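Quick sanity check, Sec translocon accessory complex subunit YajC:
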Amino acid sequence: MLTLLLQAAGGLDVTQLIIPIAIGLVFYFFMVRPQQKRTADAKAFRQSLAKGSRIVTIGGLHGLVVELTDETVVVEVDRGVKLRFDRSAIAREVGSKTTAAAAEVPAAS
């Protein structure tokens, strides 16, 4: 039994350092870094919103952006029905302004 205790009291092995460092790097590249990229992309999208954009909120409400401030967005959801949202509540853009304008113009037959 004394020999087991003496063997366990040995010095620090290099592999004991490499494994936790490798786990930390894998965690960073597969979890932290992609989340930071998604957050940065979402922030850039919300800053690029413009009047006339067709958007969907986080709650699933579809509408047209009619007014913008630094913190809020006014969305028209139906004729005469306007709702004010924080910019952070905008999830995605449904279509670009040019696509929406082309869809509203009927094709000549």
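Posting the structure with no commentary besides this: The helical segments are 2-8, 14-47, 97-104.
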